[in-house]
Amino acid sequence: MAIVLTNGEYYITVSSTGKIGKTTNIEEAQTFYSCNVAMKKVFKAPGKCKGYYPYDTEDTEWNKPKEKQKRKKYSTEVRRMIYNNADGRCQLCGRKIMFTDASMDHIIPLALGGEDCESNLQLACKVCNGAKDFYLPDEFQDRVFDTFCFQMEKKHG
Ligand SMILES: [Zn+2]
After folding, report:
1. Could you tell me the distance, in angstroms and rounded to a whole number, from the CA of residue 127 to the centre of ligand 1?
2. Which of helix, strand or coil describes residue 50?
3. 19 FRET partner, CA 20 to 30 A, in 43, 62, 101, 156?
4. How many whole angstroms from 98 Cα to the centroid of ligand 1?
5. What's the CA-to-centroid distance between 102 and ligand 1, angstroms?
């Protein structure tokens, strides 16, 4: 295990005399045995280490950007079936949409651990789909309701 301290841009270096610096080169970064040891350094020099957090350079899971999960491509037949089941209506706002404008929405967003399979798909227009990406269905309804109320309030005082 090799823990370094980073703020996502710089890495903390510690010289032989104990002086704290920073570098963009991970090769020069000070490595620690564990997160605890790294955090002790942060607590000792809170000013210089502000915003820095321990990062395990050997844990490849940490290095994978979470949003870049590959999404499955669904065949035209599957898309057509979901479209027909929904009667061509966005399952979020109820608008009729063209098949070519329809997008497949994950009922439980992938970012929240939803499965990338047909049973987790529903028809949604692109606007709704984009807006809902990081919400669960209930949260999304709340959010839409809040947005509606907020906009009405702004308009009519
Ligand atoms: Zn919609």
Report:
1. 6
2. coil
3. 62
4. 12
5. 9
Domain 74-134 in CATH 2.40.280.10: no
The CA distances from residue 83 to 21, 53, 72, 86, 94, in Å, are 57, 46, 17, 5, 13
Name the burial class of residue 11, with classes exposed (0-12), middle (13-18) and buried (19+) by CB atoms within 10 angstroms of its CB.
buried
Cβ atoms within 10 A of the Cβ of 109, count?
A: 18
**Residue pair 28/12 in contact by the 8 Å Cβ criterion:** no
Q: How many residues does the structure list for the chain?
A: 157
Q: Which residues pair with 12 in a beta bridge?
A: 22
> Rounded to the nearest whole angstrom, what is the distance from the C-alpha of residue 66 to the centroid of ligand 1?
26
Q: Quick one: tokens of 51?
A: 């915003």
- Which residues are registered as beta bridge partners of 6? 11, 53
User: CATH 1.10.30.50 in the chain, residues?
Assistant: 74-134
Q: What is the pLDDT of residues 16-39, one digit of tens each?
A: 888 899 999 998 999 988 888 888
